[in-house]
Amino acid sequence: MSLQFSVLASGSTGNAIYVETENQSFLVDAGLSGKQMQNLFEQIGRDIKKLSGILVTHEHSDHIKGLGVLARKHKLPIYANEKTWQAMDGLVGEIATEQKFVFQTGTVKTFGSLDIESFGVSHDAAEPMFFAFNHQGKKLALITDTGYVSDKMKGTIRNADAFVFESNHDVSMLQMGHYPWSIKRRILSDVGHVSNEDAAIAMMDVIGDATKRIYLAHLSKDNNMKDLARMSVQQTLASKGFITGEQFDLYDTDPTTPTPLVAI
Q1: In this predicted model, what pLDDT tens digit does every residue of 20-69 receive, in sequence order?
Q2: CA distances from 37 to 8, 106, 240 (A)
Q3: Would residue 14 be called left, alpha or beta, if left means φ above 0 and alpha means ψ between -120 and 50 degrees?
Q4: Is 45 helix (H, G, I), strand (E, B) or coil?
């Protein structure tokens, strides 16, 4: 059995990604209510109770809303770095000590035949990090919630078979939108979110021969649209000779509907 995954939910209202191999299964973030998370798992035919653990990227509510409920209800191991654990104190309720594990940024944890590498991103949280999953020569790289994609990040995720890649906003929509200037400035900053165009520019440096699937993730509900994100990314990539639909495919993600569970 190969590396499989589903983007269960992605967007400003909640984020969760499911990843499995033949012997391990992990949830990355639990940014929706416990009931909503249960429903998402049912839609992909998987059982939350059988998870090997939950990996936490950072403490913002759209990534941890259901974390405490799931941890307590199903007695699941939770993995986060020390600063994120400290930042979550008081936000997720009591989690038993024996369920709390430290996964430091920039390290690799091995679970059977699955290696999970954590790497830091640039976001206005305590110590935000994302993950690359490596299994039997296949790689899945997850990167959202970052204001920019550094060379160091690119080195970790380069030539993944599949990417879940932030394409948060259209800059013009954001600038003309109703958000207060303070929020616009935060989103556009180096600790905010990556725009459609900047996502595509970063992709140019990490797409490799192995890359077959790119999922556009964490789209703003107010400052982006699926069609616009896809078109912007396609056009920017095409300007440098990257042809979607031939070299690789682009996929949408959704705030409430999981992507089909696929193997890479």
Answers
A1: 999 999 999 999 999 999 999 999 999 999 999 999 999 999 999 999 99
A2: 8, 28, 39
A3: left
A4: coil
Q: How far apart are CA 203 and CA 244, in angstroms?
A: 12
Report yes or no: 52 and 28 within 8 Å, Cβ to Cβ: no
Residue 85 contacts residue 78 (beta carbons within 8 Å): no
Q: Which helix (H) or strand (E) holds 181?
A: helix 181-188
Phi then psi for residue 129, to 5 deg, are -150, 155
Report the length, in residues, of the chain. 264
What is the C-alpha separation between 20 and 111, in angstroms, rounded?
11
Least Cα distance to 194 among 206, 205, 202, 185 occurs for 202
pTM of the model: 0.97
Type of residue at 179: Y
